[in-house]
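Supplementary material to the annual report.
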Amino acid sequence: MLVLGIFLLGILLALPNFFGSGPAVQMVSADGRAFTDSKIDEIVTALASVDVQPEAVYLVDGRAVVRFHNVEDQMLAAEKLRRQFDQSASIALTLAPKLPDWVRAMGLSPMSLGLDLRGGVYFLLEVDMDSAIKSRLTLYEQSFTTLLRDASIRSRVDLDGSDIIVRVRGAENLEAAREVIAAADPDLLILDGADGQSLRVRMTPSQIRERQDFAIEQNITTLRNRVNQLGVAEPLVQRQGVDRIVVQLPGVQDPNRLDDILTATATLEFRMVDTAGTFPGSRFYAGRNGETGQMLRREIIVSGDQIIDAESGFSEGSPAVFITLDSAGGTSMLKNTRENLNKPMSTVFIEVRRETTEVNGQKHTTTIRTEEIINTATIRGIFKDRFVVTGLRPVEARDLALLLRAGALAAPVFKVEERTIGPSLGQDNIDRGFKAVSIGFLAVVAFMAFYYRGFGLIANVALFSNLLFIVALLSLLQASLTLPGIAGIVLTVGMAVDANVLIFERIREELAAGNKPQAAIHEGYDKALSSIMDANVTTLIAAIVLFAFGTGPIKGFAITLSLGIITSMFTAIIGTRTIVNLIFGGRQLKSLPV
Amino acid sequence: MRLIKEKTSIDFLSRSRRRIALSISALAIVVSLVSIGTRGLELGIDFTGGVLLEISYPQAADLNKIRGLLADAGFDEVQVQEFGVSTDVLLRLPPQADAKPNEIREKLRNTLAADEPNVDLRRVVFVGPQVGEELTEKGGLAMIFTLLMIFGYVMFRFQWKFAAGAVAALAHDVIITLGFFSLFRFDFDLTVVAAVLAVIGYSLNDTVVTFDRIRENFVKLRGTSSEEAMNLSINQMLARTIITGVTTLLVLIALLLLGGEAVAPFSIALIVGIIVGTYSSIYTASAIALNLKVTAQDLLPPEIDPDLIDDLP
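Predicted assembly:
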């Protein structure tokens, strides 16, 4: 009974995979809030106005999915929806499974396919941890300068590698400075400088780790925002290891623009021009697109991470970005414009990229940070949190607005791996995989039936259920199926009969040793058990190591192999035993079809 | 039906056969190691880093013409080869000094599209050099780690002489499979590492099943020599070893023939590995255990200290 129940459950879970999929549009709310049923009505009305009758409209985790009869409808609808919901939602083309409502209502879904089966783009990004730390140190440097000045301690604060050097005069000042810094952040390591006139301040290893984790998490959030802005269905942004982030964008075909947007670190900073050259720490910034360069002061009035909204558009005929600041940025801007009325302020455009050069066979990677002035304007009035920046090309303005809106990256990221899989290749891989599984399966089924006759047929039922359970579990776990994953299934089909072979051979031996059929069955199952366990545990060890070591597609192989091992133990031992008992149980047998 | 006689009594483990088997294995290992050492492996882009493009033409592709086109466009180091069918071509570029994959990709696309507008870019892969290096390291570690875990498991379930035999047999399978890839210059990519780990799992499976029977027979047939008991066990398990090998090879051949070029290296590694693994679990594993003078005593439950039992709840 239990076995039958599990079998039926397997059928139910595997069921969603048999309906196929159709062209669809997915809508995600721009502010991250879940859509409600009223949105569905809005969508249906909007589509009716362009004469498109969707095949199905429904919500999945707060996203709206609209499925169509054909691609033409999908295209028409996507255009209409983009026009109507441009500000409030991001719209992406996708494929949606054609599930009947009752299947979907049960929360069932088909296996999710890996990128190599559905096409798309895969990026592996590395976060530049050095700059994450460096930017934190720069913040410390600035805050120490201000704090010490506020405490009336004359000091000079500099960066020296990963240390911050605070120079003061006199022993009592040294102690006072130490107290100020310790009060600002009690976790910092404060060491005495070699000359007795300075302090050497350092971040502790745990602070560094914390900062790195923060940088990664912040970057993941930002990347998610950017991906959502671009409108990609079912994107995946995930941390991998210490300093890497995986980004998977199914269905995307042109990685170029994506690439620019994802890895872009473009951001803005606002600084006052040092017209007389009297401020300490001022330095020269070059101009971009023909702007004149300027000496700019060291203090940053507002930086990119204080920008909460940005829209691109036109101001007086030239491309512009309309900026909204958060409250801290607004306050700072207000104070600055009030103090510096009629003085020039510059907008600095910052970009970071990495270049690898080869010198004498050694690879050197250098990070290049360009900081260029895109605009210098005299402050004509006092303003706070809303203003306009000009001086960019139209494309630059549009991308910059998107980047500022999605938030800045806490540290620059660099692409270390990229894979683009075309849709035709994905479909080919599915077809080939399916063919290999079915032919392999048939070959094994034929062999088993031929070799073990009646018992072979029972093993074949087990083998079929095994395949069904793998599909069911993959659908349940929503682990993505990859091409190596299919290879894992194929391998499992070949190996899954092993348990039955062990049992059947044992039954034959017991029969040959003169045992009665019923006793032979009993002994066969009993004695083969320890071998089966040992054999499967060892294979499972290999599969688990593979899972731990593998990334992407290889993980897919490890998953299907492990699942296959587990389900095959169940079907081969318990499943076949049940069938054997049903057929041969309680009968006086003269011989066994084995 | 039976492929194998009901009762085989092949002498697998006599001193002379053991010597022959171990010599064959030793020779294969030496050849493999020499080949890996001198010729190396045809490492795929996963390990070397670089740029790879899989492109598809509407008609059979002219490789020489493509080479010419690309050389004219400044890609001197590009490797052009057919990929499975005559319409599909694989392009490989070594890691570029100033890696700008976008530009390289666009330049390649434009160069090829200028000649044949219907060319389909089916797959583009860029792997940074540092990723490849890490992967090589991680792959090696994974294999060693798997072998250690397995040694631990077999030692726990059986005894160290068996564990040594099993792990030696596995190392034997891994080295010969890698040697095969080196000797015949098959592409060695990430899926091959996965396949080799699967071979480790499979071959061990075979070995452990045989060991299991050896243990059973050691207990059942007290008084017979280790060699005899082990020989009997191998004979008893022979049918199972071969049938499981056959079914597994059946599906792998299906995968090799139907699965497409992308899974070909994977299938080849498994096919070679399973043949070698089947051989090694018959000959090598038990032969080594026997050479280590494994006896029935090694497998009997150890005397339990009565004091220890008192301490147990």
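The first strand of chain A starts at residue 21 and ends at 29.
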